[in-house]
Every structure is written in structure tokens, then in C-alpha cells.
Amino acid sequence: MSQAPSNPITNLSAGEHPLPSYLQSDNLGPWGNYLQQVDRVIPHLGSLARWAETLKRPKRVLIVDVPIHMDDGTVAHFEGYRVQHNVSRGPGKGGVRFHQDVTLSEVMALSAWMSVKNAAVNVPYGGAKGGIRVDPKKLSRGELERMTRRYTSEIGIIIGPNKDIPAPDVNTNEQIMAWMMDTYSMNTGSTATGVVTGKPVDLGGSLGRREATGRGVYTVGAEAARHIGLEISGSRLAVQGFGNVGGVAGKLFADAGALVVAVQDHGGTIYREAGLDVPALLRHVAEHGSVGGFPQAEVLANDSFWDVDCDILIPAALEQQITAANAHRIKARMIIEGANGPTTPAADDILRDRNVLVLPDVIANAGGVTVSYFEWVQDFSSFFWDEEEINARLVKIMKDAFAGVWNVAQEQKVSLRTATFIVACKRILHTRELRGLYP
Ligand code: NAD
Fold first, then answer.
1. Is residue 6's pLDDT more than 80?
2. Most buried residue, 111, 298, 347, 380, by CB count within 10 Å?
3. Residue bearing the CA closest to ligand 1, atom 23
């Protein structure tokens, strides 16, 4: 047998390009989970599989030091990241997370899931994500503003309306997007509303953006429920995370007649057999910052959340919540992933064997980036649409994308996650092939 010629620079044989250790899947953090998801799709990519390694390497990783003056006169340093996973289909796009557990592995995985998600709903973006390892609840408003502005300045070399467009994620909101937009604009010398999405409506934000992710979760959930003969009205729902995504999704399901029986957030787990009063719970969270202490409910131990008798489960907090350790306890018939990466590949297998339908993050929570795309388009044309038009366009894109994925899953007898990866990765790798390699 003839030996493949060895590369004189890397000393590797042709076809042998091992990932650097920090990119390998034996790091079973979120990036490891993502790599396993990619491995499951490669056999379905046909001739495009030759480009698949592109999916396993982020295009660009920026780690920044974010030093700020604290109110007490000391100087604090925070570690921040911006990762552009893939920009073959357009500028990078993805949120910014402020959380004490943010790591580079997490931001890399989140950026990759953005590439897949943006391609799944066919908006003209690549994937990116950012974050700072910080508990923002421990900062004063002034400290939060200074940290946001310094971070924006530090990542300013790679973001821009045509390069990479951040948006809100966990613990970031319209105000933080306003500070990011202002900082970038001050640094570049002109107002650049299109550099971030999820801004306040008075600053070039879009109507319907705040509710868009939750609305998308509801839309695909209702479509899937129809396919499996599950009636939303009267169904029992459990929601983990009651912020932007979980709160809005819970409200829309309750409006459609579902009983939201259990809610868990960072402050605890509450339960009411007859269904929680969702508008009252949303007011309680707005006032107290958590579902903890909500009067009209029983308190459950956090771990008991996974045993709750429900038809639909919406994880809408953080990644790696549904694992091999709890997947067999879940009673729901359908899981709608509002959060990014809430289910590990091992849990996916257990749920498949138990016939639990999982609507994966990369399609289920794509409503937010879809309306972010509308916001960016409106900013470029300085012409703003009304909310009815925005919601109608959002619902159409989500329904069409979901129908496409559902058909692929049926035809190829794969999970909805693998089906979404098939649709999206083919789009990404097709543009990679068309563009070719430079030089
Ligand atoms: P958010 O900050 O508005 O809410 C986060 C929620 O998670 C809060 O209720 C918080 O209490 C809860 N939480 C935090 N730690 C928890 C823990 N250990 N256990 C249980 N609950 C916990 O954030 P969000 O924007 O609603 O984002 C939630 C998820 O949805 C994230 O995975 C995010 O990446 C994803 N997502 C958000 C958007 C968006 O448009 N905001 C879009 C797509 C996906």
C-alpha cells in the first residue's frame, strides 16, 4: 500500500489534520457537545463532507482583558471573549452573555450554534458570540456601564454592521445594547445603529424583538404539537428559566390555554398543580428578580423539577441542563429548547429511545435572530415596519423553516437536531465551496 505524502511543514500525512487540543471533543464542555453533534451530521453531507472540518474550527477567537474602575476606587479586571465561528454566509451574528460561568469553550459552542441556527432559518449571517465572565448582579449600574463600554472598545476591532453584529443574551438587555452602540459609534465617529440588535426601539431597535425568541419557541412548539397530536390547550408545561425567552414563551403558551405548572430559575423552583398565574408571576419576577418567594405556589427542591408531571418541557436557562443523569426522569412528550445547548448528546440518545420529541435550539430559539435580522435591515434602510408585519414575517419564517426540517427528519429517519444540522451545514458548506479558499 502506498503511503500518503507527508506535509513537510506539519509533518502530517494527507488527510491527517488533528484538531488542536483546545478544540477536541474530549473536553466535554459545550464545545465538546457541539463537536459530537457535527460528527452525527457528517455522514449525511454527501460531497460537501470534504469541507466539514471548517465547522470544527472557529474562524476567529478574541480574548480581551476588560479593566474598569470600581466604585470603591479599586481596579477590577474581567475576562471577555468574542468568537466568530463562521462568516461564509455573511457577517458574524450572535449575542453577548454576562455570567460568572462564561468560558471560552462555552462562547465557542454558542458561536457555532449561531452559525447553524442562522443557516437553518436562512438569514444571511455567519455565527458569532461574545461574553464576559462576571456576575453582573454584583456590579453597580455605573460599573456595569463602564465594563460594557470597555468590552465594546476591546472587541471593536472585529465587530461592525458589516462584520459582526452582537445582540442580547443571558443578563444583557436593551440598555446594554444602547451602551454598546454608543461606544462603537463614538469610536468610529458616526452613529452606527446597525452594529448591534436588540436595541431600544427609540434607538433603531425593532418592535417585536424583545418577544421574538419566545414567540418563535411558541410557534415551532405549536407546529410540532400538531404533528404529534398534542393539544396545547389544557397541556401541562414546565419552564426552566423565566427571563426573556422562558417568560415570553410561558406567557404565549398560557395564552393558548396551557397550564404552566412548574417554573425554575436561579432563585428556586415553584409548582402549582392547577397552573401558575403567569401574568402575576411575570410581575413578581420584574419586581424581585426571581420566581423565588412567589406567593401562590408550592416550593419544590430544585432537583425535583425534572420529575414534574408535564407534557411539554421548555429549558430556557443555560446549557447542559438535561444530561444522562436526569433525561430518564423527564415526563414530557416534547422538549422545546429555548436555551442554547441545554441537552447533552448522551441525553439526546436517552430521550430518543424514550420517544420524547426534542425541538432543538438551532431551530426552536431562532426567532430572536430572525427579528434581529429584521432590525438590521430596518436600520440600513431607516424605514421601520409595524409590529403586525414583523410578527407575521417571523411566524412565516419559523413555520417554513420548521416544515423543511421536519420533512428531512422524516425522509432520512434522523432526529430533528440532526435534520436541522443537515439543512444548515449544507448551506454553510455550499457557500464555503462557492467562495473557495483564498489564496
Ligand atoms: P435572561 O437573562 O433573560 O434569563 C435567564 C433565565 O435563566 C433567568 O430566569 C435566570 O434566573 C435563569 N437561570 C440562570 N441560571 C439558572 C440556573 N442555574 N438554574 C435555573 N435557572 C437559571 O436570558 P435569556 O435571554 O432568556 O436567555 C436564556 C437562554 O436562551 C440562554 O441559553 C440564551 O443563550 C438563549 N437564547 C436567548 C435569546 C434571546 O433573544 N435572548 C435567543 C436565543 C437563545
1. no
2. 111
3. 170
